[in-house]
Design a protein that fits this description.
The complex is a heterotrimer of chains A (424), B (301) and C (308). Chain A is mainly α. Chain A has one domain (18-230, 329-422). Helix content of chain A is 72%, strand content 1%. Chain A has a two-stranded antiparallel sheet. Chain B folds into 2 domains: 3-219, Rossmann fold (3-Layer(aba) Sandwich), CATH 3.40.50; 223-289, Alpha-Beta Plaits, CATH 3.30.70.1560. In chain B, α3 packs parallel to α5 and α9 (237-245) crosses α10 (268-277). Chain B is globular, with a radius of gyration of 24 Å. The two termini of chain B are 31 Å apart. Chain C has 308 residues and is α/β, with parallel strands linked by helices. Chain C has 2 domains: 5-221, 3-Layer(aba) Sandwich (Rossmann fold); 224-306, Alpha-Beta Plaits (2-Layer Sandwich), CATH 3.30.70.100. Chain C has helices at residues 42-49, 92-102, 107-120, 136-148, 166-181, 193-199, 217-223, 238-246, 270-282, 298-306, and strands at 5-14, 17-27, 31-35, 57-62, 65-66, 77-80, 154-158, 185-189, 202-207, 210-216, 229-235, 251-257, 262-267, 288-293. In chain C, 44% of the residues are buried. Chains in contact: A-B, B-C. Chains B and C meet through α6, α10, β14 and α11 of B and α4, α5, α6, α9 and β14 of C.
Chain lengths: 424, 301, 308
C-alpha cells in the first residue's frame, strides 16, 4: 500500500528474563550519576592510590631482579635480609602494600558513596517514581539490587579495577610467574573486600537515602555516621591508652624516685629532674669530675633507664589490651578496615617482617649491653611490628557489627520503600 | 475473556476493601465506576497482580492471579492517577527506561519510545527534562510509558485529571483509538462520566467492595417510552400550562424540561402547542437515562 | 445590575511572562463560570480578585471596593483554592472552625458556623476525623466548607470538583446552585465543561491573558458567525422535509443521515430557523420526532473560540 499507517503499531520482540531486570535499574542509575562532572573527576582521583601501589609493586619487582638503581635506593629503608633474599619476603611485602592501598581506597570509597549514593532512593521518593517502578514486572528485590549495583559499579571502578590492574602490572614487572603462586590470594581478597564494602556501605547508604526526600540530609547523615563514629572511636582509644600509660609511668617513676632519692645537686620538679644547660668544660681532657658530678650523672642515667623501662612496660600493656579492645568496633571505617586486614592476612605479613627486624637485635643485644649502649630489652618479639600496625581484636566482632548494621538497613529499606499494594 | 475474578476478598486490617467480589469482563473498553472507598483502587491493584488476596481465585488474560503475578504485569500497562515521574530524564529517556524495566533491550526500548511518543503527540518536547512539562504533557507521557511494552490490557486511572478541554478531548480520542482501533483492551477508571461514556462500551460499578452493576452502557441507559427532554427558547410557564391541560406533565431538570406525554400521543402534540404559542422548541429528544443516572441508581444514592 | 467583580484595564506580568493583558471585565451577581485553556490567566485572575496579587496596571474592585491591601474585604470573600494545603493533624471541623475564627467570628459562632458549613457540603459524619485520613473528595469538600463558613457574599472556586465521585459531585453542584440562588455571587473556574454547564449558563472565557467572550452561552454561540449552527432533525419522511427546507433561504446546507433517518441542517440564522420549525413539523406526514443541535453547548463554544 502506498500510504502507511502512522498510528499505533504493535510490538513483538524479545524480552529479557526476570533475573536481569536489576541491570536496567543499575544502568540507568550509573548513567544518571555520570552526567555530573564532579563524579567523573572523583573517578580519576580515586586512581591515585592505585598509582602509588603500582609504583611500589614495580619497585619490588625490580628489586627481585636485583636491579642496581633500586637496590641503592632501598638499602637505606629495608633490612639487609630483605634486600638479599627478596623472594622470601615477596608475599609479605605485597600484602602490606595492598593493605595500605586498601586503607587509602577505603577513604576514597566512603567519600564516593557520599557523592553518588544520596540521590538513589531519595529522588525517587521525592518525585514519586515508585508507582511507575512497581506497576511494572519488577520486584522490590530487583529495585534494591539495581540501586546497589550503581554503588557497586562506582566502587568496582575505583577499588577493584585498580587493585586488579596493579596486580597485573606488578606481575609484569616481576617477570616471574611464581609471583602468582605466592600472591594470588591477594586478588581474591581484593575482589571480596570490594564486595564487602559495596554490600555493607551500599545498603546503609540506600537505607539512609530512603529516609528523606532531600539528598542533602542523606549526605549529612552519612557523613555524620561515618565521621562521628570514627572520631568517637579514636577519642575513646586515645583516652584509654593515655590514661593507662600515664598510670603506669607516673606511678612507677614516683615509686622509683622515692626508693632512690636524688643527690642534692639535682633539682626536681615532682618526680622529674630539671636539666640545666651547663657550658662544656674548658679542659676537655680532664676526666676528673667531682664526686658529686659523678653521682649526679649516674643518678640521671639510672633515672632515664628506669623511665625507658616503664615506657616499654606501658607499651607492652597497651599492646596486650589489643585483642580485647572493643573501642575500634564503634567506628564504621575501622570495622571495614579490620575485615580488610583479615581478608588479606596482613598480620602474618607483619609478623614476618617483625621477625626479620628483631633477629639482629637478638644477636647484637648482648654485645651492645656490654658496651653500655642502651638497647631495648626483652626477648625477641616477632609480633613487635604486627601488634602495632594491625588491629588485633577478633575479626568476627567487626563482621558482627557490620552484619548488624546491614540487617538494620535492610529493615529500614523494606519499611520505607513499600511495594505498590501498600502505597497510600 | 479479559479477566475473571471469583469471590475475591481482601482486607487491610479492619477495613475490607473487596468483599467476595465476583466479576467477569470480555475484551474491549470497560469503564470502572464507583464512589470513593468502593474498592476501585484495590481492584486495579489486583488486576495488576500486585496484591496477595486473602481468598478467592481469578485469572487475568489467562494468568492465575496467585501464581503468575509478575507475568500479569508483563501484559498489563498502568497509567497511575497521581503525579509520578522518573527524575532527571528527558521525555524519551523516561519512556525508554519504562520499556527497559519491562525487559526490553535498550535499543528496542529507545526505538519504541520514539514511536509511542509520536502516537501520543509529544513532539519537540520529548527532548526536554520531564520536570518542565505541563500537566497535560505529563499525562500523555504517562500514557506513553504505559503502552511502550505493547500490553494487552491497559488500565487508565483518572487519565483526564487536570487537563484542559482540548487535552481531555485528545486523551479520549487516544483511548478510543487504542481500544477500538488497535485491539488493546482498556479499563478506564474515572469520576467524569461523560469521558467514560465517550470511550467505553461496557461499564462496571463497584460499591462497598462489591459489584453493584455491570453491563453494556447503551443497554443500561433505558429508554422511557413517552418521556422526552425538551428545551424551549422563552418562558416555560404557558407551555407547561397547556401541556397539563391535555393530560401531560413536565418537570424542570437543570435547563431542560422532562416531559411526560399522555397516553397515545406523539411529539406532534408538542409541536402543536408550540405553534399555537409561537414558541420555539430548540431541543426535543426521547429521554434516556444518562450514565450518571445509571450510576446513581446502582449506588443507591 | 451593578457588577460584583470589576476589572478595569488590568494587566499583570511576572518578569517577562504576561498573566493578564488589559482585561476589562464586569461580572454581575449570580453564578459565573470562568473558562480557558492552560495558561490563559485564570489563576492570575482569581489571585488578583482575592487580593493576593497586585495588578501591574489597572484596578480590581470587588463589591465596589479596591481589593489590594484591603483585609477587611476578606470578611466578605471566600476562596476555595486549587492546591491542597491543610494542617494534617487537625480534624475537618477544627480546621473549618479555625478558618471561621480567622475571619472574625466569635468562638461559639465559629463552632456553629463550622457545623453548618460541614453539613452543607455533606461532611457531617467525617468531620471529627483527622484530615490526614481523608480521601481526595473529602479534602475537596472541606476546602469548600472553609470557603463558605463565614457567610461570604462573593465566592471564588478554583476547580472545586476534582476528585469527587459523581454522588458528591451532584450534591455539591446543588449546593453551589443553591448559594447562587440565595444571593451569593460565585465565580467557578474549571476545566470540566459539562460541570460548568450544569452550574450556570453564564461564562467568562479567557485565552492568552485576554477576554475572548462573556455572557450567556447561547448568545455567544449565536454570535459565532464562522461556524454555522448544525441542527439534527429526525423524522420518518426526512427527504420530503429536506425538500421543503431547501426552499428556505436561511438554510446553508443539508446532509442526509440515513442511519438515523434524519437530516443535518446548517444555518447561520438559528433563530429564524427554529421559529419556522413548528409549522414545518406539523405539515402532513412529517412527524418530526427529534430535534437537537450538536454544537449548541459549551464544548462547541470553547472549541470554536479557543482552538482556532
Amino acid at each position: 500500500m502506498p500510504i502507511f499507517d502512522q498510528g499505533y503499531q504493535h510490538w513483538q520482540g524479545r524480552l529479557s528474563g526476570h533475573g536481569w531486570r536489576w541491570l536496567a535499574v543499575a544502568r540507568h542509575g550509573v548513567k544518571a550519576q555520570l552526567r555530573s562532572w564532579f563524579v567523573r573527576v572523583l573517578l580519576l582521583v580515586a586512581w591515585l592510590p592505585a598509582i602509588a601501589l603500582v609504583t611500589t609493586l614495580t619497585m619490588w619487582g625490580l628489586l627481585e631482579q636485583q636491579a642496581e638503581s633500586v637496590i641503592a635506593f632501598l638499602q637505606r629503608l629495608l633490612p639487609p635480609e630483605v634486600i638479599a633474599q627478596p623472594r622470601d619476603y615477596r608475599a609479605a611485602v605485597w600484602t602490606i602494600a595492598y593493605s595500605y592501598f586498601f586503607k587509602a581506597e577505603l577513604v576514597c570509597s566512603l567519600f564516593l558513596v557520599l557523592i553518588v549514593g544520596p540521590n538513589l532512593v531519595s529522588r525517587d521518593l521525592r518525585f514519586n517514581a515508585l508507582p511507575l517502578y512497581f506497576s511494572r514486572p519488577l520486584r522490590r528485590v530487583d529495585y534494591f539490587l539495581g540501586k546497589l549495583g550503581v554503588i557497586g559499579f562506582y566502587l568496582a571502578a575505583t577499588v577493584v579495577v585498580p587493585a586488579v590492574g596493579a596486580y597485573l602490572l606488578g606481575l609484569a614487572f616481576s617477570l616471574d610467574l611464581g609471583v602468582v603462586r605466592d600472591t594470588h590470594h591477594l586478588l581474591w581478597a581484593g575482589v571480596l573486600y570490594g564486595l564487602v564494602i559495596t554490600v555493607c556501605s551500599g545498603t546503609l547508604m540506600l537505607a539512609l537515602s530512603s529516609l528523606s526526600r532531600r539528598s542533602i540530609y542523606v549526605g549529612l547523615a552519612w557523613a555524620g555516621l561515618v565521621f562521628l563514629t570514627h572520631m568517637l572511636s579514636s577519642a575513646l582509644i586515645g583516652i584509654r591508652g593515655d590514661t593507662e600509660r600515664r598510670a603506669i609511668m607516673q606511678d612507677g617513676i614516683e615509686k622509683w624516685v622515692r626508693d632512690n632519692p636524688p643527690p642534692p645537686s639535682v633539682e626536681m620538679r615532682g618526680s622529674y629532674p630539671i636539666y640545666r644547660y651547663s657550658p662544656p668544660r674548658q679542659d676537655k681532657k680532664d676526666p676528673q669530675q667531682t664526686p658529686e658530678e659523678k653521682a649526679k650523672e649516674r643518678w640521671l642515667r639510672d633515672w632515664s633507664a628506669e623511665n625507658r623501662e616503664l615506657y616499654t612496660r606501658a607499651e607492652a600493656a597497651r599492646l596486650a589490651q589489643g585483642p580485647t579492645d572493643w573501642r575500634p568496633v564503634l567506628s564504621y571505617a575501622y570495622n571495614l578496615d579490620r575485615l580488610g586486614d583479615w581478608l588479606l592476612d596482613t598480620d602474618a605479613a607483619w609478623v614476618l617482617l617483625g621477625r626479620t627486624v628483631e633477629r639482629p637485635r637478638q644477636m647484637v643485644g648482648p654485645m651492645a649491653r656490654s658496651q653500655g649502649v642502651p638497647v631495648p630489652g626483652g626477648p625477641p618479639n616477632d609480633r613487635m611490628l604486627a601488634d602495632r600496625m594491625v588491629w588485633q581484636f577478633p575479626w568476627y566482632w567487626s563482621a558482627g557489627a557490620l552484619a548488624g548494621v546491614w540487617l538494620l538497613s535492610v529493615f529500614v529499606l523494606s519499611r520505607r520503600v513499600k511495594s505498590l499494594d501498600r502505597l497510600k | 475473556m479479559l479477566f475473571r475474578l471469583s469471590h475475591i476478598t481482601k482486607t487491610y486490617g479492619p477495613v475490607t476493601a473487596l468483599r467476595r467480589l465476583t466479576v467477569e469482563a470480555a475484551p474491549g473498553a470497560v469503564g470502572l465506576l464507583g464512589p470513593n472507598g468502593a474498592g476501585k483502587t484495590t481492584l486495579i491493584r489486583t488486576l495488576l497482580g500486585l496484591i496477595s488476596i486473602d481468598s478467592g481465585t481469578g485469572e487475568i488474560l489467562g494468568l492465575d492471579i496467585r501464581a503468575r503475578r509478575l507475568d500479569i504485569r508483563q501484559q498489563v500497562g498502568f497509567m497511575p492517577e497521581d503525579e509520578c515521574l522518573f527524575p532527571a530524564v528527558p521525555g524519551v529517556g523516561f519512556v525508554s527506561y519504562a520499556g527497559e524495566l519491562c525487559g526490553m533491550a535498550s535499543a528496542d526500548a529507545m526505538q519504541r519510545a520514539h514511536e509511542v511518543l509520536n502516537y501520543v503527540g509529544l513532539d519537540e518536547a520529548r527532548y526536554r527534562p520531564v520536570e518542565s512539562y505541563s500537566t497535560g504533557m505529563k499525562q500523555r507521557l504517562k500514557l506513553a510509558a504505559a503502552i511502550v511494552h505493547d500490553p494487552k490490557l491497559l488500565i487508565l486511572d483518572e487519565p483526564t485529571n487536570g487537563m484542559d478541554p482540548a487535552g481531555r478531548q485528545e486523551m479520549i480520542e487516544l483511548a478510543r483509538d487504542l481500544s477500538h482501533g488497535k485491539g488493546m483492551s482498556l479499563i478506564f477508571s474515572s469520576h467524569l462520566l461523560p469521558d467514560v461514556e465517550a470511550v467505553c462500551d461496557h461499564v462496571l460499578v463497584l460499591g462497598r467492595g462489591e459489584l453493584l452493576a455491570q453491563g453494556n452502557i447503551q443497554e443500561m441507559k433505558q429508554a422511557h417510552p413517552r418521556t422526552f427532554d425538551v428545551r424551549l427558547k422563552g418562558n416555560t410557564e404557558p407551555f407547561l400550562a397547556r401541556l397539563r391541560a391535555v393530560g401531560g406533565d413536565a418537570k424542570p431538570h437543570e435547563d431542560t424540561l422532562r416531559v411526560q406525554l399522555p397516553e397515545g400521543q406523539t411529539p406532534d402534540l408538542l409541536w402543536r402547542i408550540a405553534a399555537d404559542l409561537g414558541e420555539q422548541i430548540r431541543y426535543l429528544r426521547p429521554h434516556r437515562s444518562s450514565l450518571e443516572d445509571v450510576f446513581l441508581e446502582a449506588v443507591g444514592g | 445590575m451593578t457588577p460584583i467583580i470589576e476589572f478595569d484595564g488590568v494587566s499583570k506580568w511576572y518578569g517577562n511572562v504576561i498573566g493578564l493583558n488589559k482585561l476589562t471585565l464586569h461580572v454581575p451577581a449570580g453564578v459565573t463560570g470562568l473558562l480557558g485553556p492552560n495558561g490563559a490567566g485564570k489563576s492570575t485572575l482569581l489571585q488578583l480578585a482575592t487580593g493576593q496579587l497586585r495588578p501591574s496596571q489597572g484596578t480590581v474592585r470587588v463589591l465596589g471596593q479596591d481589593v489590594w491591601d484591603n483585609p477587611a474585604l476578606n470578611r466578605l470573600i471566600g476562596l476555595c483554592p486549587e492546591q491542597d494545603a491543610f494542617y494534617e493533624w487537625m480534624t475537618g471541623h477544627d480546621f473549618v472552625r479555625t478558618c471561621a475564627r480567622l475571619s472574625g467570628l466569635g468562638r461559639r459562632d465559629a463552632s456553629e458556623a463550622a457545623d453548618r458549613a460541614m453539613d452543607r457540603v455533606g461532611m457531617t459524619e467525617h468531620m471529627n476525623r483527622a484530615i490526614r485520613g481523608y480521601s481526595k473528595g473529602m479534602r475537596q469538600r472541606t476546602k469548600l466548607a472553609q470557603a463558605l463558613v463565614h457567610g461570604p457574599r462573593v465566592l471564588f472556586l478554583d476547580e472545586p470538583l476534582t476528585g469527587t465521585d459523581p454522588v458528591a459531585r451532584r450534591d455539591l453542584i446543588e449546593a453551589v446552585r443553591g448559594l447562587g440562588a440565595a444571593g451569593c455571587s460565585v465565580l467557578v473556574s474549571s476545566h470540566v465543561l459539562h460541570e460548568v454547564q450544569a452550574l450556570t449558563p453564564r461564562i467568562v472565557l479567557l485565552h492568552r491573558g485576554r477576554l475572548v467572550a462573556e455572557g450567556h452561552v447561547r448568545e455567544i454561540r449565536d454570535l459565532i458567525d464562522k461556524h454555522p449552527h448544525r441542527i439534527v432533525l429526525v423524522c420518518d419522511k426526512y427527504r420530503d422535509l429536506a425538500a421543503r427546507l431547501a426552499a428556505c433561504p436561511d438554510v446553508n446546507g443539508i446532509k442526509f443521515l440515513d442511519r438515523e433517518s434524519g437530516l443535518l441542517v446548517e444555518t447561520r440564522q438559528p433563530d429564524d430557523f427554529y421559529a419556522r420549525l413548528p409549522a414545518l413539523a406539523l405539515a402532513d406526514g412529517v412527524a418530526l420526532r427529534e430535534v437537537y443541535s450538536e454544537d449548541d453547548n459549551l464544548e462547541a463554544v470553547f472549541k470554536y473560540l479557543v482552538n482556532k
